[in-house]
Amino acid sequence: MELYKKYRPQSLSEIIGNESLIKTIQNAIDGNSLPHAILLSGDSGTGKTTVARILKEHLECADMDFIEVNCSNYNGVEFARDVEQKMSMSPIAGKTRIWFLDEAHQLTTAAANILLKPLEDTPKHVYFFLGTSLPDKLLSAVKTRLTPYHFENFTSRNMTKLLRKVGNKEGIKLTDRTVDEIIKNACGSARLALVYLDQIRGLDEDEIKQTIEMAASRERQGIELARALLKRTKWGAVASIIKELKDPPETVRLCVLSYCNSVLLGNSDSSTNEIAFAIMQAFEDNFFNSGKFGLTKAAYDVTSA
Question: Which CATH number fits domain 18-151: 3.30.1380.10, 3.40.50.300, 3.30.70.20, 3.40.50.720?
Fold first, then answer.
């Protein structure tokens, strides 16, 4: 089993980082006052889905009553009406029914408007968790009906703590240099950090060094993609770069975003900044579900604009 799945926290007490937020959530559970409509916001890999699934257990929600939906795929009026109709139904097995709407900013305006009443007048047995990395893109009327729980990116200190903890349990020897390299490439995502840790499992010091150097080389490929998109390179050349990419699409996405962010903050040329901003918009949604298809689509959207 992949490390990020094996070491996914099973309780709030196991979560590293976001201490104040976790304490707030625990207090709500202890006081039997958990809101029925919650906004879980933060970058990819910061714990939104993990907390949603932990809350599922606290609320005694059976698997069949936990409806997890990616709004990148289901975001229209028909979906929203289906939620509205089914929310009055009693739980099939547990005590509660939960809708976890991930990537909630992808909901169409019409669908979001239909969900306003369900979010405001939820039955006692129903809970809505809306997850997003882009809360500002949510309809304002939706946000006012949600209690916000924002997840910050992992600090270097907490990332080090996580890597040392998992490394010790798995018998993976980690030098300070290795930890620093993983943290640098993980961009604040615990999930990506454990993906990288998986890649060096069982390697000796020299092999770890080579693996990290290869990761750095692949990072350069991500930068090459970003530069090609910024130069408005023709699709054939961009496609060739994508075919050669070895890193997970989500890692490439973060690399492209990081490069374009640096361009946007350090460039005075308005036309280049406009392109960088357009790339960041195309790459703003994560690729954990869409994979390389999502990466290809985002790049094509930029080149065809």
Answer: 3.40.50.300
